[in-house]
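Deliverable D5.2: sample structural annotation.
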Amino acid sequence: MKGRGYFIAVLAGLTAFGLVLGCEWIPGKPTEAQRPLLSSQVSNFDDLYGRSCTGCHGGDGQLGAARPLRDPLYLALVHRDTLRQIIAQGVPGTTMPAFSERFGGGLTDKQIDILIDGMQNRWGRPQAFTNMSLPPYRLEDARAAGAEPGALERGKIAYTTYCAHCHGPDGRGGEKGGAVVDGAYLALVSDQALRTAVIAGRLDLGMPDWREAVAGQPMTPQDIADVVAWLASHRQRLPGRLAGAGQGS
């Protein structure tokens, strides 16, 4: 009959073996494949979009509070590098936060590229705009192309021509569109967001783009700059907020 010393030796051996293996042998512990991914390891577009974008831009890229991303015109208008900057750094002075880890967000550079690729591949149609001259996306680009800074008097005329039939003669809302000179609205959007809305419209809400507001009379780059200047002139100047702050959307 084996003595007590034998059992002590066996127990000590099993204990030492367990220490070598760590906790890998514990019954019920999930395998590597069963373990949930770290947030930085997520590489599926649907998961990344659902976590980061759905709340503002809509579950399928449209009908959210913010600009629809399921918009071929918008995706043709905005340069990839600009879209990456918007996602990574956010838009100061607006509700668009920074998503890059380098700027306090939770997305890696690779994940941001996955989002951009997914939007462009699923919702973009660049071939539809290859033979079309798009207005410059940014105001700086419009000025470089020869457009003068927006003027309020011209902006009022352009607004009356292209926008009043939807948003009302004074911009406070009409039969087809809401108020666009509302202080709360203007406090949440940048001048660039206004410019983008004038150019690209809101496909998901039936708002026409710069070509369709008046049949056969597309807006010129100067019209666009002037309307944006007129809209922005109604923004209340808030302490600590730069006029027209932000470049995004």
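Annotation notes: Residues 30 and 245 are 49 Å apart (CA to CA). Residues 4-21 form the longest helix (18 residues).
The annotation will be released with the project's public dataset once the embargo ends.
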